[in-house]
Write a structure and sequence with these properties.
A hairpin with an 8-residue loop joins β4 and β5. The protein folds into four domains: 96 residues; 104 residues, PAS domain (Beta-Lactamase); 93 residues, Orthogonal Bundle (Helix Hairpins); 148 residues, Heat Shock Protein 90 (2-Layer Sandwich). A five-stranded antiparallel sheet has the order 2-1-5-4-3, sandwiched between helices. The chain is rod-shaped, with a radius of gyration of 52 Å. It has 486 residues and is an alpha+beta fold. The longest helix has 58 residues. It is built from nine helices and twelve strands.
């Protein structure tokens, strides 16, 4: 739970910081783009405008004298704005410049073509040798007469200006944006943590309340604050918890009434049943002297009265478990001998019916009466619903995981086994795999009583199907000493 809570907090903080970073990045990108364009356009407009003015003010005599024209190019270059230029001229095959090199590698063919088709010239920003340049091309034109259309002379002048200063300003702007974004993200971490805390507090309250409800504290409620979705969730939880508390209270009351009813009925039936059993015993003795129909009716009444007596005793026993009035009276016993006595008292001594694998020398602290009930119920159930021979196997098991020893009692039959859909319910009270079978030899509580008796010993009982068929019931009881409890 703690890791899940930390994970949610981390996701909230990361999401908050991502939004802050995206906002900072978007703002910085838009600001950078606008500032960069402003810087470059200001430099570009100044350079292009001034260069055009310089070219329009030229007093040209064509063809030009290379030496004097080169001096003129150097003069134009020195007067360049916003900083000196390198100026190049192309006239036919003549190439002149204000520098030592007559040509420039940053003047592109695209710029040359644009200059020939545009009387006012053209410009281009290029990158070469790791530097940025502004290149401007302006053709020299003449007008045959005042007001006439200007015509190109064939002479084209180019200005090349490095943009290192502008690039430096742009890089400084990027660094400033980066250096400003990092502290902004650090500052954004504080409201992110506060927001995560405010969101997680009701979530933690809800988790704690749900845990309390899971423990059975159905009166748990959450304090509702505000009117947002989390507050609505808290109100919904409180309403659900109140409805659950009411429903569970009604169910518990109904269950208590049902258990009390079963207990009361069992006690009330016990006294008349004692008289009925005494009468049926007398009738059984005289049945041989009665006519066949009357004898059959007497034996039927005797048998059904015996079943009713077993049912009442089982109901009283299960009522004691429900009321938590059942206790253990343990003694150190020879387990194998205890199982033999259980089988002998029920007359299950025929090897064709019951086979035993009971090694001697296994001793444990058990409640002999309750362990007798466990073994008798499992063997009787196997004989009724499986096929003989039923095997009763006794072993011990040491578990290295927790250094504990366990007493293991296994009862297996040779029957068809237990259907997969029945297995989860074999220990349920009054459960019948065949709903059409309304009557059986048992009370329907034998396995439920077995489960309760095993639990009382701190053990477990489980049902399964054997690998070669047949049902297998396994009882595991810890081999630890204990005191009598009541």
């Amino acid at each position: 739970m703690r890791s899940a809570r930390s994970g949610l907090r981390t996701r909230l903080v990361v999401a908050f910081l991502l939004v802050a970073a995206l906002s900072c990045g978007t703002t910085a990108a838009l600001t950078y783009r606008a500032a960069r364009n402003a810087i470059l356009e200001q430099t570009q407009d100044t350079a292009v405008s001034h260069f055009r003015d310089q070219i329009q003010g030229l007093d040209l005599q064509l063809p030009v004298d290379p030496n004097s024209f080169q001096l003129r190019l150097q003069q134009i270059a020195r007067q360049g704005k916003p900083r000196p230029w390198r100026v190049y001229a192309e006239y036919g095959s003549m190439r002149l410049s204000s520098s030592t090199s007559p040509t420039s590698s940053v003047i592109t063919s695209e710029l040359r073509r644009a200059a020939r088709g545009a009387p006012r010239g053209s410009f281009q920003r290029v990158v070469g040798g790791g530097h940025s340049y502004l290149t401007v091309a302006v053709p020299a034109v003449f007008a045959p007469a005042p007001g006439a259309e200007a015509r190109p002379t064939g002479l084209v002048l180019y200005a090349v200006m490095e943009l290192d200063a502008e690039d430096a300003n742009i890089r400084a702007m990027v660094v400033a944006a980066r250096d400003g974004a990092l502290p902004a993200l650090a500052v954004a971490l504080i409201p992110a943590l506060l927001a995560a805390r405010s969101v997680l507090r009701p979530v933690r309250d809800l988790r704690r309340a749900a845990h309390h409800v899971g423990e059975g504290r159905l009166d748990t409620r959450i304090q509702v604050k505000g009117g947002d979705e989390l507050a609505d969730l808290a109100r919904t939880f409180n309403a659900s918890a109140a409805a659950l508390e009411h429903s569970v209270a009604e169910l518990r009351a109904a269950e208590a009434r049902a258990r009390q009813f079963a207990s009361d009925v069992s006690h009330e039936l016990r006294t008349p049943l004692a008289g009925m059993l005494a009468v049926t015993e007398v009738l059984d003795e005289d049945a041989a002297h009665l006519d066949p129909d009357t004898a059959a009716a007497v034996r039927l009444i005797s048998a059904e009265t015996g079943k009713l007596a077993v049912l009442v005793e089982d109901l009283m026993e299960i009522s004691r478990f429900d009321a938590r009035a059942a206790g253990l009276h343990t003694d150190e016993v020879d387990v194998a001998e205890t199982i033999r006595r259980t089988l002998l008292s029920r007359h299950w001594t025929d090897p064709a019916q019951v086979v035993t694998e009971l090694p001697t020398g296994i001793r444990a602290r058990l409640d002999p009466r309750r362990f007798d009930v466990v073994v008798a119920n499992l063997v009787g159930n196997a004989l009724r619903h499986g096929r003989p021979p039923v095997t009763v196997r006794l072993t011990t098991e040491f578990r290295a995981a927790d250094l504990s020893s366990w007493l293991v009692t296994e009862v297996a039959d040779r029957g068809p086994g237990i259907a997969p859909d029945v297995l989860p319910h074999v220990f349920d009270r009054f459960y019948k795999a065949d709903r059409a079978r309304t009557r059986s030899a048992g009370s329907g509580l034998g396995l439920a009583i077995t489960l309760e008796n095993v639990r009382l010993h701190g053990g477990t009982v489980r049902a399964a199907n054997g690998p070669s068929g047949g049902a297998v019931f396994t009882v595991e009881i810890p081999l630890t000493g204990g005191e009598d409890t009541a």
